[in-house]
């Protein structure tokens, strides 16, 4: 009879194999070896040597092409065929198996066939069996150990714990589908375990199966049979190396399965497009998952199997971009500003902030946002767009991006610290992070270490109290904050160029903070509102520099609506000065002087004017004084209406304590204030005479700080405020707040002013800013010096009467000074005396209230005419007003 050819699919026992057509694996036939029998493998317990007998045949035949011949058939229910098998190396079966002692001759062997060929084969087999028995081979061994084979694991998790990290030897007994199979673990020569194993890292489509609940047959999923056949032809009854990794939610073992020669089977199945990567196994596989994703990508690119209709994702950009983080909206949403100034919102790929709707995660929402703010705000980052999530109900279209800071993935940083969770993507999602597997691994590590939102204990919640809610609350907090210097704070919101909402974490305080010493133009509050010129530019500049930044604040006072007034420092620089220097704010003289940083601000304003920046783009130095006068007059009219057009009659007893180099006066109003000052100064001097109170400053003084200063002229102690500080020379310029004069003195002549009875809050500074009305001092420095000398001489150590002609918004007084002993009429005044000496002139452009005093102006013009005729002072070379 002619020999047939087939491939051995599997070995059922030591005497039976399953063959399939070489060209069509689905055509199968079962062939038993003629005249012999082997011990049986049984679920209730294998017969002795059953495994060894089968294993001999398995190692010899599985996966090999053989030739076979059918000798006889037994017409039972299965119509089994019996025959012989020949291997290419001329090995004959059953002869070889009988010779090795793994098969016995059947008792009825002689009755099967009486042909000459059969008789010859039978005689040969009998001789081989006799020799094997004599040599105690195979089943003829007298003291062979019985293999204990279990078909179920009582505790899969414990099995994994005991064997994790070890390469276990196994045999694939049965392939159920492309991603699951029954494996016999050869734990020892006498201990075997058979159990179902899931192939780690992938999910293959299901094969045809019967639903146990209703008995209905469910068809195979697309490519389910192909995946099953792919694994079966390569691994069925082959020795494999198994690395157990964990268990599934159903208690099934998940493992990496490798062929001893070809390596892991998973990448090959994925490259063929017969499975998809399984994200749930990422934490088990770790870095190995990346090779599986690469294999899946190969199938997608070549449109293999499951990916035949795959459409490659369109590239969304030109690669990697650089930007600055301008705002943190939440732990997974950032605003980035490009070098050109354009701002865009992006979401971090594959990560999600703590869920605000989850009671356990909600407390971590502000914590995660603050974590990201501290790391990124104002920092340069790199990013690339991974994909876009289309707009849905309640959500706009979102760009999903990978952001890196100092070569560290920001999403990974959040997940590692338990400040975000990883999104479980659907298979068709195209916007997942390129390091998605690393994110899943990091999340598992954070969960195991109970970090952040995975901690059983919530964060310490910080409840900020809004102290700007009312003036009463603001005043209570002012007492505490005004005693501190450089208080750490966070700019939570920019309301305008000079007004912000700040958070003070160490005080749990929320404040409306207003910059002192400047005035920034108002920006539009809504789309229908119209802001002042450069108001929006100032707002945008402040937003760019301060939004969500760490700053320091010095609180000086509070306004009528509960706003806190003071100095704000960003990177140790006064932001008010920066704003003025950019031409986006002007100096408010009175409050700047009060804050002690007037010189710094005026210098910054002058630089902005010279550079013609923003507000000063049309600045004309020659018209500066005229423009100022016109503006002041208009402002006064706008503030006070018709009443502002008239000169006030408000007589006060005053003392001129100082005359500045620009001709401005410092007045003390005689009355309860000066009486209280006399009493305070007496106690102040006594306090500082006491040797117990001679401790100097503990640290370098800061601009705006109140101190006790020892005046050089008389070596007495006075209340003062630091105007500026020279750290190199260890000197400070101080303004004596009760007298108005200033000087530069060493730090050694300073002491802290912390005693409650001497603080400005106990007795406000007594020096008031003032200017002489109806006169314009010379621009020439020599004549100006003469004018100041005259004013100082006329006012020194004398109690005068001042008519307060007008009060500016910043509190500065316009005054006419009279000596009650010498002034018999309203025309005799210090103002008139300066005109008479030719050291001032009547201004050409008068303020509205000055124009209303025609009698005063008439008298002053007469005096000016006499001074011109007599060539006094600045008129000595002629009339300055002539063209």
Automatic annotation (TrEMBL):
GO MF annotation: an example: RNA binding
Keyword Transit peptide: no
Main location: cytoplasm
Full protein name: Probable endonuclease LCL3
Keywords (A to Z) from UniProt: Cytoplasm, Phosphoprotein, Repeat
UniProt key word Mitochondrion: no
Signal sequence, renumbered to the chain: none
Recorded superkingdom: Eukaryota
PROSITE patterns: TNASE_3, TUDOR
Domain Tudor: 700-760
Record InterPro entries: Silence_cplx_Nase-comp_TudorSN, SNase_OB-fold_sf, Staphylococal_nuclease_OB-fold, Tudor
A single BP term in Gene Ontology: regulatory ncRNA-mediated gene silencing
A Pfam family matched in the record: SNase
Domain called TNase-like: residue spans: 2-142, 166-309, 319-456, 485-618
Annotated transmembrane regions: none
Organism: Periconia macrospinosa
Cellular component per GO, a single term: nucleus
Region feature (Disordered): 618-647
Subcellular localization(s) per the UniProt record: Cytoplasm
UniProt feature, compositional bias: Low complexity: 630-643
């Amino acid at each position: 009879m002619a020999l047939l050819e087939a491939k051995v699919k599997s070995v059922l026992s030591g005497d039976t194999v399953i063959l399939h057509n070489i060209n069509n694996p689905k055509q199968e036939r079962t062939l038993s070896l003629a005249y012999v029998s082997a011990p049986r493998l049984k679920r209730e317990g294998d017969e002795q040597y059953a495994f060894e007998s089968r294993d001999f045949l398995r190692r010899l035949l599985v996966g090999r092409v053989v030739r076979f011949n059918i000798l006889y058939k037994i017409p039972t229910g299965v119509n089994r065929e019996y025959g012989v098998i020949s291997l290419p190396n001329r090995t004959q079966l059953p002869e070889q198996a009988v010779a090795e002692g793994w098969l016995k001759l059947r008792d009825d062997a002689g009755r099967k066939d009486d042909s000459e060929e059969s008789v010859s084969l039978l005689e040969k087999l009998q001789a081989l069996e006799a020799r094997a028995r004599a040599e105690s081979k195979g089943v003829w061994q007298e003291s062979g150990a019985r293999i204990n084979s279990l078909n179920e694991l009582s505790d899969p998790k414990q099995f994994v714990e005991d064997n994790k990290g070890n390469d276990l030897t196994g045999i694939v007994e049965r392939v159920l589908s492309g991603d699951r199979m029954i494996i016999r673990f050869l734990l020892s020569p006498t201990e075997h375990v058979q159990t179902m194993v899931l192939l780690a890292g992938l999910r293959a489509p299901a094969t045809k199966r019967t639903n146990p609940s209703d008995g209905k047959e469910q068809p195979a999923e697309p490519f389910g049979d192909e995946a099953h056949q792919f694994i079966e032809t390569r691994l069925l009854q082959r020795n494999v190396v198994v690395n157990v990794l964990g268990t599934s939610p159903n208690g099934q073992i998940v493992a990496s399965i490798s062929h001893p020669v070809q390596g892991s089977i998973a990448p090959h199945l994925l490259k063929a497009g017969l499975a998809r990567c399984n994200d749930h196994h990422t934490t088990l596989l770790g870095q190995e998952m990346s090779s599986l994703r690469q294999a899946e990508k190969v199938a997608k690119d070549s449109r293999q199997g499951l990916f035949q209709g795959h459409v490659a994702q369109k590239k969304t950009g030109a690669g990697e971009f650089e930007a600055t983080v301008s705002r943190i909206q939440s732990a997974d949403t950032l605003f980035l500003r490009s070098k050109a100034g354009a701002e865009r919102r992006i979401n971090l790929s594959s990560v999600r902030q703590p869920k605000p709707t989850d009671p356990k995660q909600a407390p971590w929402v502000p914590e995660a946002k603050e974590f990201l703010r501290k790391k990124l705000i104002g920092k340069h980052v790199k990013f690339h767009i991974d994909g876009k999530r289309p707009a849905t109900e309640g959500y706009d279209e979102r760009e999903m991006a990978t952001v890196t800071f100092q070569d560290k993935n920001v999403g990974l940083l959040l997940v590692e610290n338990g400040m975000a969770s990883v999104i479980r993507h659907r298979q068709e999602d195209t916007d997942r992070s390129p390091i998605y597997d690393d994110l899943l691994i990091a999340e598992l590590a954070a969960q195991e270490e109970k970090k952040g939102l995975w901690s059983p204990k919530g964060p310490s919640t910080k409840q900020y109290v809004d102290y700007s809610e009312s003036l009463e609350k603001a005043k209570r907090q002012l007492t505490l904050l005004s005693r501190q210097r450089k208080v750490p704070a966070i700019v939570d919101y920019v309301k305008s160029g000079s007004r912000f909402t700040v958070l003070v974490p160490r005080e749990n305080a929320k404040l409306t903070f207003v910059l002192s010493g400047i005035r920034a133009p108002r920006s539009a509050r809504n789309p229908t509102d119209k802001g002042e010129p450069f108001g929006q530019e100032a707002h945008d500049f402040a937003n760019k520099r301060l939004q969500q930044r760490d700053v320091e604040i010095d609180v000086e006072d509070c306004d009528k609506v509960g706003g806190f007034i003071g100095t704000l420092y960003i990177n140790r620089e006064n932001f008010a000065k920066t704003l003025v220097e950019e031409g986006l704010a002007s100096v408010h003289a009175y409050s700047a002087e009060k804050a002690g940083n007037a010189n710094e601000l005026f210098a910054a304003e002058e630089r902005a004017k010279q550079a013609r920046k923003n507000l000063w783009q049309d600045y004309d130095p020659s018209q500066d004084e005229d423009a100022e006068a016109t503006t002041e007059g208009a402002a006064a009219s706008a503030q006070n209406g018709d009443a502002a057009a008239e000169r006030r009659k408000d007589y006060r007893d005053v003392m001129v304590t100082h005359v500045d180099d620009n001709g401005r006066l410092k007045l003390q109003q005689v009355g309860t204030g000066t009486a209280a000052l006399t009493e305070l100064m007496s106690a102040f001097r006594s306090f500082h005479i006491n040797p117990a109170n001679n401790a100097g400053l503990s640290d370098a003084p800061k601009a705006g700080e109140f101190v006790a200063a020892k005046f050089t002229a008389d070596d007495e102690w006075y209340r003062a405020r630091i105007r500026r500080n020279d750290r190199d020379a260890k000197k400070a310029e101080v303004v004596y707040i009760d007298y108005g004069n200033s000087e530069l003195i060493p730090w050694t002549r300073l002491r802290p002013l912390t005693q409650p009875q001497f603080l400005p809050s106990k007795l406000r500074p007594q020096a008031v800013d003032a200017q002489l009305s109806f006169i314009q001092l010379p621009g020439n420095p020599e004549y100006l010096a003469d004018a100041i000398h005259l004013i100082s001489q006329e006012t020194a150590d004398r109690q005068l009467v001042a008519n307060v002609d007008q009060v500016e918004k910043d509190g500065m007084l316009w005054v006419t000074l009279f000596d009650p002993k010498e002034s018999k009429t309203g025309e005799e005044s210090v103002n008139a005396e300066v005109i008479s000496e030719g050291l001032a002139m009547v201004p050409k452009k008068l303020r509205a209230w000055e124009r209303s005093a025609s009698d005063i102006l008439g008298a002053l013009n007469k005096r000016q005419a006499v001074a011109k005729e007599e060539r006094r002072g600045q008129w000595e070379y002629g009339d300055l007003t002539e063209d």
